[in-house]
Amino acid sequence: MESLALAVVDRISERMRSVLQDAQQIEALSAVVADKGGGHLAHQVDLSAEGILFALLDDVGYEGVVFSEERGLVELGNQARLLVCDPYCNTSLTFRGFRESAVAAYEYGPDGEFVSGAIADLQVRRILFARAGEPACVVHPPRLEVRTRASVSDVRGVEDALLTISLLKRKRRAVPPLRLFADAAMVTTVDGAITAARLGFGEIDGFVDGAVGQPSYEALAYQLVERAGGTVTDHLGKPLDFGRIARGLGRGVVDRHPVVAASTEDLHREIMARLTV
User: Fold this and answer.
1) 147 Cβ partners below 8 Å, 6+ apart?
2) Domain spanning 158-275 has what CATH number?
3) How much is the pLDDT for 227?
4) Which SUPFAM superfamilies match (predicted)?
5) Each residue's pLDDT tens digit, 185-224
6) Are 19 and 78 in contact, with CB atoms under 8 Å apart?
7) Domain ranges of the chain
């Protein structure tokens, strides 16, 4: 298998995409199956997507460790491998009429070294994909061998930028980055791997979550933005240590990681200047 991460997101996205187009199945998938606390709910769609994940891992005889958003850390064997997967990202939005969802998976070696990563867009049939030592590319299902080079936008100034700012939950709005709102050409808000994918596709120009931070399994999406040519740091301008984040998930540890991502270094610099005012 060329890439386990690519195989995972392709299978889950292809199966879930057809289900999400069926109005009768949508009602069943929207059922809340667990309250995870802090305003986070698990829906039947999460369990369905995760079931596809573990069925695939069984099919291919995977014997490493898996961190999945719903089940947490699962040991399937003694191999020194880690797969991190968010089988269905942005569940709550789906059932409030906003389809901003994705499937994400990342594979690591025994010391947290990146092997491959993939994010499948559930709105448009495409996948942002990268392997170790290579720049990111866009995969065009159903022919996974059909690929084009991924590239972030060339926007360099906030006043020309479409920025996505993480504001969906109330606690994120306690101290909003008012200068960014005032100066950006356009502003939208959403979280999760879909935002990183759209940065890699060159469709948005920056993402900001400097207050609360992304959970570990979602922060990993931004290593694909770097591999597509973007600039990614924390809220203080320090690079994110994706290897450390992955190693933590390999022990079942989920932290929060502030993220400031931009298509160009110039845009990133301008964003940071407005965050520190």
Assistant:
1) 129, 137, 138, 139, 140
2) 3.40.190.80
3) 97
4) Carbohydrate phosphatase
5) 999 999 889 999 999 999 999 999 998 999 999 999 999 9
6) no
7) 4-149, 158-275
